[in-house]
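User: Run a structure prediction on this.
Assistant: Running it now.
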Amino acid sequence: MIKFTENDLYLVTGASSGIGKAIALRINELGGKVLAVARREEKLIEMRKLALHPDLIIPIVKDLSANLDELPLWLRNLTIEFGKFKGLILSAGVQQTVPLKTISITKAKELFEVNYFANLSLCKGFCDKRVYSESKSSIVLISSIAAIKGSPGLINYSAAKGAIDSLVKSMALEVAKYGIRVNAIAPGFVLTEMIENWQGENTGEYLEKMTKGYPLGLGRVDDIADLTCFLLSGSSRWITGQSIVIDGGASI
C-alpha cells in the first residue's frame, strides 16, 4: 500500500476543485504534506476542511497565468519557507470549446500560457537542485485524451495537451540524471463536482450520451488521484516519460 510521510512535500496546482482537489486530498489521506495552489482562497479553505489531516494542507493563493518567468523564483522562495519538494503535480488549466472559424490567436495564446507555458516554467523551477528533494522526486502533469482523440471545437485545447505529452518525453530524458521522473496522465471525461451539481434540463441526456462512449463508464476524480499517487510513489520507480491514458476505454 502506498504511504507518504509529513516529510514528503508535494505542490499541487488547481487544488481547489476537480481533479486537483482530489489529488491534494488523496496525498493528504496517505500522509503527505501538500502545498495546495489555486486562485480562490475561499475554495482552498473549503477543500482543507475535507482533509483527513488538515494541518498537512497549506493553502497557497496564486494566479499561475501571470508573470510566468518568475514562477521558478516563486518555487524557490516556497522551499525556503517550507522545505524541498518531493513531487510536483500540475493540474491547473482552462478549456476552450471554440470552432476553427472563430478562433482568436490572442485567446489561443492565453490558453497556451496557462495549459503549457506556466507548467513548463514550474517544471523548470522544480528541477533546480535547491528545490527538489535529494531523494527520488516525481513530476506529474495532467494532460487529456483530447491530445490523442480528435473532437470538434477543441483544436487549441488538444494542441496544448499534445504539447504536454511531448514535453514529458524530452524532459524525462534530460532530468533522469537528477533522479527526477516525469510523467503525464491523460484522463477521459471525468465526473467532477461541477458536473454532478449541474441542474440544467439536458444534464441527464448529456451524461447518458457521454457514457455510451465509455465502455467502463465515466471516470471519477478519485480514479485520477489514485494513479497520480502511484506515479509519485516508489512503486513506479521505473516509469518515466509516459503519458498514461485513463479513460475507461473511450479512446480504443
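Strands lie at 9-13, 33-38, 57-61, 87-90, 137-142, 180-187, 190-191, 219-220, 243-246.
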